[in-house]
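Re: weekly structure request thread

Next one in the queue (391 aa):
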Amino acid sequence: MSAVLFRGAVVRPNDLLEDGAVLCTDGSIAAVGARAEVETPPGALEIDGAFVAPGFVDIHVHGGAGADFMDGTLDAVLTATRAHARHGTTTIFPTTTTGSPEQLEAMLAACASVPAGSGARIAGVHLYGPFFATEKLGCHGAKGRRDPDPGEYERYLESGVVRIATCAAELPGAEAYYRAAAARGCLVTCGHSNASWGEMERAFAAGVRHVDHFWCAMSSVASVAERLGTPMQGSMEQFVLLRDAMSTEVIADGAHLAPELLEFAFRVMGPSRLCLVTDSSRALDMPPGEYRFGPEADGEPFESDGVVGRQGARLASSVSGMDRMVRTMVGATSASLAEVVRMATLTPAELAGIADEVGSLEPGKRADVLVLGSGLEVERVFLAGEEVRSG
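Done, posted below.
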């Protein structure tokens, strides 16, 4: 494998190294520094760009280019991982929806069978659906929703492919599920939930450290009052904001959250507790039209207008890649470019426990490198030092 020398403004977790260079050899990052300080080996491929950044890490993503990971086939998984690689995602956690046990097992098996070098690298599966609250399903199908049962979820966890595990905190059996997932080293999360402060306290004690897509399909003071009555109680929002050990994520596509909410999340949580996710559906890179969220056979229908997915007046997942999330966050908030890129790279890598391998441009880490244009458009993508070709 030949050496590759990237030159440009190098995006690091805490700053921007102007006129910098990143040298990659044998699939790993060998050196990072000022351009004048990094020697070019004989025969190295030299690449210039406006910005040189680490590959994006997406911990919450459902599909792309017409495929949903819940289609449960190798072809669908390859189609989606290749689509997201074109948008700069080099590490991906395919994410389940609600569905039958058979559909979930097919999805896990398909993700486990993907050969290396086939688009964004799968670092594990995010077991997201089916353990959601009935009143917080969002665009997920009600038929495939259920409470956690160890007879079912232990099979998924024992597969070894699940690295992120989600469940609504108020469901019967949720705490046992959290403990089982935490014992296997998973990032344990609460999502699609109408949980109260007290339920979040118990979830935290059982291992929860993250909540999914802030303000989307999550409890509020008002929704908890509707469920549990008065006195009004704290919700997931207050719990996450006040617990330093908790993290969360935002869908920064410009359609899910207004600029003031993105700014609020950044200012209150900071770049080490807030990450960007795409939550992207199969409608990514597809023309406007009707699609299915989840399995193609019986997933929930939704409409894509080319900007976002919708089910009537309700939003239905995003249709964008991580590059758009980065550009939106840069334009909508006071976060610096380094902080925004951190939220799309190192922060999710840290949450998922893979920051020793990916998430930043540091010697010894995998050579997952992006060349970005002056407008932060993705120009070239490298996985382990090898360029990802379009198509």
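The chain has a mean pLDDT of 97. The chain is about 25% helix and 25% strand.
Next request, please.
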